[in-house]
Design brief:
Bound molecules: flavin-N7 protonated-adenine dinucleotide
Low-confidence stretches: none
Radius of gyration: 22 Å
Helix content: 25-40%
């Protein structure tokens, strides 16, 4: 079992750099060696600080290549007036959402009452964004660490046969023998103690759902996590400050979670070659000399543009996520900077078959007032030939008994959408149609109709606005837009342009069948290893 990420001297150096940036109120972080050099040119520029970007920057730094990471969100390491860096879901404030005056949570209502969302001000560079597209909204993390700051920590390796179907040209032996284990190790993936799971109040909700699934003949499985389960045990024992046990997740965890700012990013900083600039939003880029010139807006936490910079680089790695990376490339083509980008750019986008739903339990089946926000179990019905579904058993972190079982189900469907650039709004827009969620809902319904039937339970119709039982109008898992082997070559090199790479979820064609961040990380590790061997070394 992999217990914790490697505590190398390098990572400790990087953590120290992050802490001193916090103490000094800086938005830029790096060790002295990296910061002392020319600021207008770097050999490697990485856009974003999520999974793909972080793995890439670590390997570039280790190879001795001076690298700057540009992140539009903030550096989440300074406590607010309440002594905490992040706010809780029960008392959200301006830190919760990216420039909003009201929260926009996945659950819209409870008993049809508008009691979940709260007014927040001032509009601020908060940690969670919800980006509206026609037919679907996309949740994203904003800040140094990207989605790792807000996600549920579930670290799942996809089933090999499904991975081979999604990315048939990628060597699965290499992925399953080398890069998935490497990603798990660096991310600090760990497993819940099964004995403790059986007794703790924190997972009563998961045990109730497990019993209902088993009664209906469906298998369940433990889900690995990047939340430190030893820490969680100490939380429940009252020996450590609470986070998973204090309703913290989508607006950030103050403790316990091994987000990227605890793992890959300090390791990258500790190489002495990597610098991170937060509140730096990349607007556009163009070929310049033997590399690229990148236009960047430096913003403050209230959204004011404080400076516009041009940074030149030889190698440009796009790790801004499925939406961010695809938008930057589409804008570059629209504006004529990169006219030869492959015509597949924008295609192959999917929401990873996400469908959320709730079930109403009997009064004798309470799910518990004190629920861990970190899911640790899923219903694995992926062997079903007609309706393969993996459904994570999700918490309702309400702080009181609700008798609700909540799930985020992941269905495998071939439905895909395409991004096109909309010059009027200067953004990439998806053409996803709400009806495209129907196959995923059908698959999920087939699983949960059976569970309800056998257990004599019903769906909740009061949670998502209106009366619908299935919520597929948002996704946590945007994937695709610059698909590996189509818009890029088989190692993420953008076709038609030397020195330009995609390194994030945009590479994956719309589905992984499970939660995607381990796959994104492992693929980035694989790609950067090849790029370092063939393109970058010696520059
Ligand atoms: P990502 O992590 O999104 O990072 C992209 C970064 O680029 C962000 O920090 C952006 O702010 C930044 N950026 C974007 N545009 C620009 C620009 N123009 N200039 C500068 N910076 C920019 O990308 N996945 C799991 O596997 N397990 C889970 O339990 C799970 N739970 C989730 C829960 C929630 C609420 C959410 C929102 C997501 C969840 N996910 C989960 C999905 C996972 O976090 C997501 O797939 C990855 O974060 C995507 O990684 P990327 O490297 O593609």
């Amino acid at each position: 079992m992999i217990r914790s990420p490697r505590f190398s001297r390098r990572r400790l150096l990087g953590l120290a750099a992050l802490q001193s940036a916090a103490a000094l109120g800086l938005h830029s972080v790096g060790t002295a060696r990296a910061e002392a050099r020319d600021q207008d040119f770097v050999p490697a520029l990485v856009v974003g600080t999520g999974y793909g970007a972080a793995a890439t920057a670590l390997r570039l730094g280790e190879a001795g290549i001076r690298t700057t990471m540009l992140e539009m969100g903030g550096l989440w390491d300074t406590a607010g007036a309440d002594g905490k860096i992040f706010c809780s879901m029960l008392e959200p404030d301006h830190r919760s959402m990216w420039f909003r005056d009201r929260t926009e949570t996945p659950l819209a209502t409870f008993l049809w009452l508008d009691v979940i969302n709260k007014d927040i001000e001032p509009p601020f560079a908060g940690v969670l964004d919800r980006v509206a597209h026609p037919g679907i909204d996309v949740y994203l993390g904003r800040g140094v660490g990207g989605g790792s700051l807000v996600n549920g920590g579930m670290a799942v390796v996809p089933e090999r046969d499904y991975f081979e179907r999604i990315l048939p040209e990628v060597d699965a032996d290499e992925m399953y023998g080398t890069y998935f284990p490497l990603a798990n190790r660096e991310l600090g993936v760990n497993h819940v103690d099964p004995e403790w799971f059986e007794t703790t109040e924190a997972y009563r909700y998961a045990r109730v759902s497990r019993a209902h699934a088993h009664r209906a003949g469906f298998p369940t499985t433990f889900v690995p996590s990047v939340y430190d389960f030893d820490y969680m045990q100490r939380e429940t024992a009252g020996e450590a400050p609470r986070s998973a046990l204090d309703c913290e997740v989508i607006y950030g965890n103050n403790y316990g979670k091994r987000s990227l700012d605890k793992t890959y990013l300090p390791a990258a900083l500790g190489t002495g070659n990597v610098t991170i600039e937060s509140l730096h939003r990349v607007r556009s880029f163009r070929p310049a000399g033997a590399g690229y010139a990148v236009e960047v807006e430096q913003i403050d936490e209230l959204g004011e543009v404080r400076a516009v910079k041009e940074i030149r680089c030889r190698h440009l790695f796009l790790g801004a996520g499925s939406l961010g990376t695809t938008e930057l490339l589409l804008r570059a083509r629209e504006q004529g900077a990169l006219p030869d980008l492959d015509e597949s750019l924008g295609e192959g986008w999917g929401p990873n078959g996400n469908v959320m739903l709730g079930r109403a339990n009997h009064v004798w089946d309470p799910t518990g007032a004190e629920q861990s926000t970190m899911p640790a179990m899923g219903i694995d019905n992926t062997a079903d030939p007609d309706h393969p579904v993996f459904a994570e058993i999700a918490p309702i972190p309400a702080g009181l008994e609700t008798w609700v079982s909540l799930y985020l189900a992941i269905a495998r469907t071939p439905e895909r959408a395409r991004f096109a650039f909309d010059a009027a709004t200067d953004t990439a827009r998806l053409d996803w149609r709400a009806e495209q969620a129907a196959p995923a809902e059908t698959a999920v319904r087939s699983l949960f109709d059976r569970i309800n039937q056998v257990n004599g339970t019903v769906y909740r119709h009061d949670l998502f606005g209106g009366t619908r039982a299935f919520e597929s109008s948002f996704t946590y898992h945007p994937l695709g837009g610059c698909v590996l082997g189509r818009t890029t070559d088989l190692h993420g090199r953008v076709r038609g342009y030397d020195g330009l790479y995609v390194t994030d979820g945009a590479l994956i064609p719309g589905s992984t069948g499970v939660n995607p961040f381990v796959t994104i990380t492992a693929l980035a590790e694989r790609n950067v290893a090849r790029v370092l061997a063939e393109d970058v070394r010696g520059n």
